[in-house]
Structure prediction request, 366 residues.
Amino acid sequence: MTTTRREQILDTAATLFAERGFHGVSVHDIGSACGISGPALYKHFAGKDDILTQSLIGISQRLLAEGRQRTATAETSEQALAALIDWHIEFALGHPALIVIQEREWANLGADGRREVRALQLAYIDIWVDTVRQLRGDLDAPEARAVVQATFGLINSTPHSARISESSMASRLGRMARAALQA
Amino acid sequence: MTTTRREQILDTAATLFAERGFHGVSVHDIGSACGISGPALYKHFAGKDDILTQSLIGISQRLLAEGRQRTATAETSEQALAALIDWHIEFALGHPALIVIQEREWANLGADGRREVRALQLAYIDIWVDTVRQLRGDLDAPEARAVVQATFGLINSTPHSARISESSMASRLGRMARAALQA
DNA sequence: AGATGAGGTTAACGATTGTTAACCTCCTAG
DNA sequence: CTAGGAGGTTAACAATCGTTAACCTCATCT
Prediction:
């Protein structure tokens, strides 16, 4: 597990942003949590905004790339949907801070970063929407989008609860998500 | 619709907090959006923190009071759960900004306010948990809590999507929530 | 051996923030 | 009629913020 300083900064910053919000964290806080101090961050990033931007881009890329791969190797739509559910649950349980900032901090991005992150997020959602619509002919595109967003909300609730073991939480969320997507 | 200045401040502040986060909004922003300017807010609240605190307390009280009343007038557990689902959906669709700040700004409260809000939120969750457990004997308390939190996440996803009409969104969310709670 | 660049440091800046102070209007109760 | 409080205003404050500048310290390469 070779962690570069850049990754360390992105990781600790994401955790702090998730706890206190983007504007609630100072560059001194981030540096201090990394063992360095304040302005040293500018050796790795263009500014505080850039840290958030790179973080959100990285998250969106990871979600999209794995989503693409898992659906590509699935043989049926049922398998594809199951793979998407498993993947999203795995990510949400493994990286609660990243899930939190991805869903709440995108308003603090600059115009360029927002466009890029938005495009990646939309691509990821589209994978879900396409898969769901192959199994649910009764849903038009906007309806399917709403259903998928609601499913994300269900799975992404993990950071707010997490009182039972990770494995039982994973299977519980999986069952609920499948049921909700069929309703 | 008699709206006192105090309510107006709470309302507009909640909207701004939902959009940009607590630390992303200045007292000047809040006052300006109310047609008054900055320091005038201190005639109605003790400070910026106090605005957030009163807002969150009000939201939690509304959710709890109506949750209590609707379950009290229900004759069966099935009816009670349906009433809770309907109420939460009605609130989330009608006041997306309040839902957003209630679930994400609680970390910015002072110790006293946090305790008070937390107690109200727990009481509301407990109504749900008790009702769910009467219908789902297989769930112990922590499991039921996780299931309820996931259902909140599903319903609270409304502010992030909202592309279809409010009535079809309401029925769609209701169906999904019921299915998820039975899974 | 010596130049170099990567990755730190502290000091200082201008801007913005929450908050207080001092002052000005009205509306209204006695 | 008039004292006073409720609800505004602007000016000014100390603190904190993101950012830049200037400087230091070593590995590493020629």
